[in-house]
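Deviations from the work plan: none for this task. Representative record:
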Amino acid sequence: MADTSGFIGKPVIRVDGVAKVTGAARYAAEYHTEDLLHAVAVSATITRGKILSIDTEAALAVPGVVHILTHENRPDTARWDLSYRDMVGPPGHPLRPLYDEHIHHNGQPIALVIAETFEAARDATVLVNAQYDVEAHLTDFAVARASAYDPPKRRMGIKPPQPRGDPQTAFATALVKIEAEYHLAAEIHNPMEMFAATVILDADGVFNVYDKTQGALNVQFYLTQVFKLPAKKVRVIAPYVGGAFGSALRPQPSVYLAMLAAKALKRSVRVTLSRAQMFDLSCRPETLNHIKLSADSTGKLTSIHHHAIGHTSAYEDHQETVVNWSGLLYQCANVDMGYKLIKLDTMSPGDMRAPGAAVGVFALESAMDELAYALDIDPLDLRRINYADHDQNDDKVFTSKALRDCYDQGANAFGWAKRSSAPRSMREDRDLIGWGVAGGVWDAPYSPVPTRARAELSHTGHLTIISGAADIGTGTYTIATQIAAETMGLPIEAVTVRLGDSKDPFAAPEGGSMMAASVGSAVQAACQKLQKALFKAARDLPDTPFKGRKFKEVAFRDGQMIAGDVAVPFTDIMTAVERETLGVTATVLSNYLSTQKYISYAHTAVFAEVRVDEDLGVVRVTRLVNAVAAGRILNPRTARSQITGAMVMAIGQALHEETLTDHRLGRIMNHNFAEYHIPAHADVIDLDVIFVDEADTRVNPIGAKGLGEIGIVGTAAAIANAIFHATGRRMRDLPITLDKVLYSDG
Amino acid sequence: MTQVQFTLNGHSTSADIPPWVTLLDFLRERVHLTGTKKGCDHGQCGACTVLIDGKRFNSCLILAVSRDGAEITTVEGLADGPILHPVQQAFLDHDAFQCGYCTPGQICSAIGLLNEGRAESREDIREYMSGNLCRCGAYTHIADAVEAVLEASK
Ligand code: FES
Ligand code: FES
C-alpha cells in the first residue's frame, strides 16, 4: 500500500490538478442539457434615473429569440428587502435587477434577452431600446468627499475602530512627525472565468443551478428567499470556480437572471455576463487615507492617526476594516482612528482580496517609510523598534506571532543589509534601483458560524469527504484530502473530496482566509468521529479481535485499525459489520472562551526591488521576497501559489489597476483587459516566498491561519517604498502609473 | 449555415455552422468541448487559445467557418489516454495554476510557443506567453513549467 501518513505539511500535488490540465474540470457555464436556452443581459446606459419605456420589438424579431424579460413582464419575486439580503451582504437595500424602473448605477441590468443560441441572444441585445428619465448623478470621489458619513449600521464582522490615549497632544508635542494622504483607485476583481450561471430544470421541478460562487449555500439561501421556493427545489452546485477573489461571495445578477428566466419559461437557461459587464458587478472601493505619525528621537512611535474614507453605492453601505490595522501592527499608546463612507452612484463595492487591509496597510506602511526617512532610521529597524508583542486594539494575547522571524529571514534572503539608505543611491545603466520594505497583517479567523463536514467510508475502503465549502483555486480539495488521509491512515488515492454542493453539510462562503482552518478542522473532526464509529462497530462484533480494547489504544494506519498486534483492514471490518458505507458528520465551532483571551493574525514582511527608467517612467518590479508567518503550512506547494498569486495581484494594485470613470457619463470606460491592465507574464519577474516556522496550538485544532489574503497586504507599500528609494519621489496615489513617475513631484 | 470539415483532436468532424459563430463558441456550445475557456471574447486574455495546424490562436477571434479543413487541437486532445502531454505534466508538477481557468489556454499557448522554436530563455518565455493572462497569478510557476519542458527538449 502507498504511504498513509505524513501528508499534512507535505507538498502534495493538487488532487484536482489532472482535471484542470486536461480540461475535464467544468465551470458554471459548462453544463449542458438538451433544449438549453442562452440569455444575455442588457445593461443600463445611464447612471441614475428611471426607465420610461423599453422597446423590445426589434429584438424579439431576431430569429431564435424566445423571450425578453424586463421589469414590466418579469415573474413575481419577493417584495421585501430582507428577502434579497444574502449571508454576507452589507446593510442597505440590495440591488434587484429587473425589479422596477429605477436605475442606481451605470451598467445595471435592465433586460434579459433569451434565445435558442448564444449568438442570437447577444446580437438581439443591441436592438433593445430603452428610454430614460435621466437624473443627476455623482461618481466623482473628490466631489463627494465633503459629505463623508459614519455608517449608521455596522456590517457584520466590522469592528468600529477604538481610539486610545491622547494622540492629539502626543502629535502636537512630538519632535519628529509626518502627515500625508494616500489614495487608492477602485479595482475590479476580474477573475478569469466570466460570471455565469446555468440553471437546469429537471423533471422533478428542481432548479439545478451551476453557479460561479464562493458559497453554494449562500446562493441557495438567496434564491429560495427571492423566488419563494422551498430549499429542496433549489440546488446550487459549484465544484470548480475559475477564480473569484471576493467577487463571488455575494450572489451576482448572473444567477438571479438565470433563475428568473428559468422560472418564467420553465426551461433550462444559461446566462453569461460579458467581461465588460463584469466591471459593473463589484469592485474594491476607492479609498482615501489620512495618516499622521509621530515619534521620539529613538524612533518609538508616540502617536498614530489613521482616518479613512471608502466609497459605497447609493443603495448599500459596504464597509471594510481599513484603519484598525494601524492600532494593531505597532506598539503605541496614543492612537486615533476613524472610518467613514461616501456615497457614489456606482454598483456596491464588495470584498476584494484582503478587503480593507490591502488599502489601509498600504497607507500605514508607506507612512512608516516616510517616518523612517524623517528619523534617518533604517525602515526595517523602525519596525523592529515598534514591535507589538501584545494586541492593543482588543487587549488580547496573540496565539502566536513570528513577525520578527519574517523580518530576519526576509531581510536575509533579500540581502537587505547591502542597501544604501539614501534615495537615488543605487543605479545600473539607465535604471535607478530601489529597495523597499513593508509589513503585512491579516486576521486568522475561524468561521463565525459552525462548519460541518461529512466523512463516509465505503465497503471498498474508499473514504469520501463531503462539505458545502468551496475551492476557488485555493487548494481546499487538496488540503482536505491530506487531512482526511492522514487522520484515517489511508493513501491519498483512497480519498475523494466533494465540495461546492448546497445539499451537502454547511460551510460559510469561502472568504477571509478562513476556509483552510474551518473546513480543515471540520474534516479532521469528521474523520476522528469516523474512527470512533468504526472502532465501536468492530468492537461490538460477537467475535471481535478488539475485545477489551479502548479507543485510545487503537491506531489507524495503512488502511487498517491496529491495536497491539491485531491489525484489521477497514474493508474486513466493513464486511464483518455488513455495511455498504459508514458515515458521520461533524461540526466545529470557534472556541468562544479562548477568543475572549486570545487573538490570531497572520503576518508578513515584504521586500521589493524595483528598477525605474526615469526617462520613460517605466517601473519594473524585479524582485519580491515575502516572508510569511501563518501558523502551520498544510501544503507548502499550494500555499506558495496562494502567496505568489496575491503578490502578483499586488503588483497590479501598485502599478497598473484602476477603474477610469467618465464622470459626465458615470461609466467605467476601461472595462476590458486591454485598457484595465492586470499583470501579465512580462510584469512578473522573480517572486520568493519564505514560510517561517510558527507553531500555534491555540488558533484552531489544525494550527493553520489561512493564506488567501495575507500575500497582498503590504506588498504594494513595499513597491511604493522601493520607488521612493529609487527616485526620491514619494508615491501616495495607487496605481503608480508612468505619468505619475514622470511628472509627480512627490 | 455553412458546412465545414475539421480534424478535431484527431477525429474528422463535420458540422453545419452559421457563419457568425466563433470557433470558441463552436467548441464550447456546439460540440461541448468546454476545456477551451472564454475569459473575454475579445482576444485580450488568451484563455481560448487552441492549436490550429500546430500554431496557437485565440479561438474567440476566429470564425469557425473560416477554418474549413484545418487540424484543430484543444486541451482535451493533448494527452495520450492517461499519459499527459509533457507540458500538462509540467504544469501539474510545478503547481502552475490555482483555479485552473486560464490553464488550458496557457498549456496550448506554451505548446504553440515550443513549436515556434523561438523561446530560448526564461525572459523569452515570459515575453511570448504574455498574451495569456492568469488572475490567480501563477506566472512564475508557469514559467518554471515551460522552462522545464524547454530545457528537456534541448
Ligand atoms: S476569450 Fe479569447 S482571448 Fe479572451
Ligand atoms: S489559474 Fe486561475 S486564472 Fe490562471
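Residues 4 and 68 of chain B are 5 Å apart (CA to CA).
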